[in-house]
Amino acid sequence: MKLELAVLAAIGIALTGCSAQSVAPKTGENAASSSASKLEVAMLLAGSASDGGFMESGFNGLQRAHDQLGVEISYKEGVEPEKAALESALDELASSGVDMVIAHGGQNAEAAKTVAQRFPETMFVVTQANVTGPNLSSYEVLQEESAWLAGAAAGLLTETNVVGHMSGIRPIPGLKGRAAFVDGVAHTNPQATVLSNFSGDQDDIELSRKIAVAEIEEGADYIFTMLNAGRPGVTQAIQETGRARQFGNVRDFTQDDAKVFAGSAVADSGAAAFAAVKDLVGGTFQAGSSHHIGLENPDAVRLTLSEDIPQEVRAKISDLATKIAADEITVRTEYTGPEFDVK
Fold first, then answer.
1. Which of 6, 164, 171, 234 fits 107 for a cystine, CB–CB 3.0-4.6 Å?
2. CA 180 – CA 330 distance, rounded (Å)
3. How far apart (Å, rounded) are the C-alpha atoms in residues 46 and 43?
């Protein structure tokens, strides 16, 4: 493990606005064999490990690998989602001599392709992407499948025939999730309109509140939010207006506030990171390959619904989920509709 990472973590020095952490492997009945404990895995997070959303989910997958598989882990968080910054961070992590570098999120795809070529002996993984190379693989949780179900539920539940979508930046998985949500709405309610906005920032609470208020004022009574630390802004807008509910994503937000959240398009991206490390530990990791996890694995991908959602809606969503898993429904992942701009 790179000493610099551990020392910086211990004394709390920031690296150009980022932070680096190192954790020793767990011992005991949940740890893997001594040979596995020698493996070292580092993760890059283009955001905060405690954002309550996508980045935290990825970090939790890394932590689970530490706890259950016995690998040593380190991570670097707070990196701006820009190619130069991502490349620099990946260079630093790979230079520490780890066995695997996991770049969490599709925004890392191009940077990972570049840096992987500089470290041919290190295995690289990008989660939520479809990029490969001689020492590079992708592991993707199909969040578009649970996003589609969220759209189908919103289409069934809306009383105004207007629903909203909100996100920040535009990595491919986020674009696919938006398209799938819109497709799900159209499947159950062809008359409904979807207001779709990408604000450019996953973490800005006030910006998220402003956009949510604008969508609510345009009639949206359900809003699908693919945000990270900015999500509380949508909750604030809903509480202020009292006129809408929210569908979360990544994890089950109905456990946080069932009055605000009608449901949550669970897509545990940490499962992708864990699967990659598990393959490394088990000796089955294949460079140059892509792996997908969908509704067939409900621990990773599913739609949760609040208890007050009518049983007929629950039954319909269950049936649709079965059909998607059986390839009887094709989830569309391309969107050509309008953007909802907020001045």
1. 171
2. 10
3. 10
